[in-house]
């Protein structure tokens, strides 16, 4: 298991000013960080990758589809073309950063709804786009981990039944699913059972408390989650995801309007120790 933390807790775009906090993350003992890649150029992420490597941190990435006008699922040819260009940009940045994984909901715009679930045509367009991404990822030595979201954030992938079926249809070893405990806490009746169902299609495990605060302080049974993940043979990236109130672009997407952890030091140290202890005990 490689333990990481999603840097969205620091900001939506990681810059020089964030490096002291990231150095603290490295000193505490995290193995890698998950970098939000929402904007910027590959040159920026090449610079950041070099700085993270010098700290001894591995790199992972989380990305989204930013708007309906660049939706790879769209029936509109121009929107779908812009969506494909955006997915290519995501991979350009990942390769510059040196990412081992690309995670996140890079399937549909967050908060965009059609009034129904995904159509067969949308599923087929997504499968085509994500298989092309997987082929490029395989050539360049990293994995894709598409994130399911709860029904209040997307209509495309919500449950592990949907996610497993989708991954099976993409049918590429570089393509899998990012399992997120926060979203699953809303959509699944049994998280351990959901993880068993997902099985070897899980490429990243997001550890996120029911309130998106400090893991271990809320209602999610992380011992059961860790036990199910290990029983399924998962030994990959485990990423702490906690959100604060200081990232405007994140608040708009996730409806986070209040602080969910007391300070960075508490989040970093408590989450690190809790997940290491829970994983070892499972």
From TrEMBL:
This is Putative epimerase. It comes from Pseudooceanicola batsensis (strain ATCC BAA-863 / DSM 15984 / KCTC 12145 / HTCC2597). InterPro entries: IolE/XylAMocC-like, Xyl_isomerase-like_sf, Xyl_isomerase-like_TIM-brl. Residues 23-248 form the Xylose isomerase-like TIM barrel domain. PANTHER family: HYDROXYPYRUVATE ISOMERASE, INOSOSE DEHYDRATASE. Pfam families: AP_endonuc_2.
């Amino acid at each position: 298991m490689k333990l990481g933390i999603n840097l969205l807790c620091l900001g939506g775009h990681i810059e020089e000013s964030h490096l002291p906090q990231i150095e603290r993350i490295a000193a505490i003992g995290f193995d890698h960080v998950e970098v939000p890649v929402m904007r910027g150029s590959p040159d920026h992420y090449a610079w950041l990758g070099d700085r993270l490597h010098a700290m001894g941190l591995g790199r992972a990435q989380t990305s989204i589809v930013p708007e309906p006008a660049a939706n790879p699922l769209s029936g509109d040819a121009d929107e779908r073309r812009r969506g494909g260009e955006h997915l290519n940009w995501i991979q350009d940045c990942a390769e510059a950063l040196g990412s081992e994984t690309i995670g996140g909901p890079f399937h549909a715009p967050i908060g965009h709804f059609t009034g129904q679930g995904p159509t067969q045509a949308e599923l087929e367009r997504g499968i085509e786009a994500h298989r092309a991404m997987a082929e490029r990822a395989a050539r360049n030595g990293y994995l894709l981990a598409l994130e399911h979201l709860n029904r209040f954030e997307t209509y495309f992938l919500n449950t592990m039944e949907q996610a497993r079926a989708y991954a099976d249809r993409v049918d590429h070893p570089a393509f899998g699913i990012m399992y997120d405990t926060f979203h699953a806490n809303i959509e699944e009746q049994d998280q351990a059972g959901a993880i068993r169902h997902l099985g070897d299609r899980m490429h990243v495990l997001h550890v996120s408390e029911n309130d998106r605060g400090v893991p271990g302080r809320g209602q999610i049974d992380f011992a059961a989650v860790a036990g199910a993940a290990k029983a399924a043979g998962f030994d990959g990236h485990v990423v702490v995801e906690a959100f604060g109130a200081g990232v405007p672009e994140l608040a708009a997407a996730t409806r986070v309007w209040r602080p969910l952890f007391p300070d960075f030091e508490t989040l970093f140290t408590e989450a690190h120790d809790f997940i290491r202890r829970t994983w070892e005990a499972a």
